[in-house]
Amino acid sequence: MLKVSNVSKKYGDLLAVDNLSFEVNDGEIFGLLGLNGAGKTTTFRMILGLIDDYTGNITLDGKKIDYSITDKIGFLTEERSLLTKLTVLEQITYYGVLKSIPVDEIEKRLDYWLEIFGISEYKNKKIKELSKGNQQKIQFISAIINDPKLLILDEPFSGLDPINVELFKKVILEFKDKGTSIIFSSHRMEHVELFCDRLVVLVKGQSVISGYLKDIKRDYKKKNIYVKGDIDVDKIKKCKGVEDIRLEKDEYIISISDEKYTSTLFKEISKFDNIYKFSVEDPSLNEIFISTVGDSYEK
Description:
single chain, alpha/beta, Rossmann fold, Alpha-Beta Plaits, 10 helices
């Protein structure tokens, strides 16, 4: 288990991370989210042991993270970090040696993953000769070649087509099932919703949302009401609590500021003829993220 306890990091007068705490259990995919500059990269670097002049504590399985622990960590960076003049074999051998894996074992593991990702023929190709999608596969292999206890994934699906996204998902879930602790970071909220039961959202180094996704959605007062049928849009817009109405395909989506207005709105919509659907649903994580992060930046 990864445990981050009351961690803060300053760069001069800039407080990049402010009293941050969270835990990632074995076999859990945990979301760490935020806009660029929110403190995610600094947090990753502290977890990786690249930054050690911070206050608070970071431990993996109860041990402070140092060079004896980092061999158990895999990190897929958002930016390409491959040495493009090396071959795939040379690149992964380099990373594997850094993780204290015997050279003959590195090649066996590489052969396995190249076959899984359908790119065995690129083993002796230079990185620069590969497509962006295949470079992303090699970067992913570099993060998992050490069979990590903790895996940090920062925008893992960058540059991938839908078929390869599904392949990545399968591998990530396999690591989860065998007990790996996984931190998942992405600006694609639909991917976060797919993987993460718990998450933290950072704004200016502080946690502004944290907890189980289902609880975050339940506690968020704003709701969306989906209606199919003939309604008077102008009349509904005037109802108390209604913030927005939009038509998507053949149904109206009515955004209300608080679920307490649901019953009143139901009574109003029931007055219209030919109503085929009235469904109250939680907002998406994307809606919650934009609303919360936007409000926080305006303060």
